[in-house]
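Input/output pair, single chain:
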Amino acid sequence: MPQFTVRTAEQLPTLLQAFRKEAGLTQSEVALRLGVTQQTYSALERNADTVGAARLLKLLTILGVELALGKPSPEPVSTQSQTPPDANQPRW
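Output:
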């Protein structure tokens, strides 16, 4: 399964919906497993920034998705020389 980097809560609704559909589940089915109404789950899926960590982890388990945390990779270092060009070399 591909990995997705999530940096903001605004990215979650699209991913949650995609994971739910990939799992072949309706909102009603997920809601039943999560112990909420379909309307509550629909609101949760649209406004993922309001979901607590415990509920989000339970939801991810229902969807068959795991959460992996890590630090961002450092930016690649430029391979170009940072020294000024030699004044004696012609500029083309």
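DSSP finds four helices and no strands in the chain. The mean pLDDT is 84.
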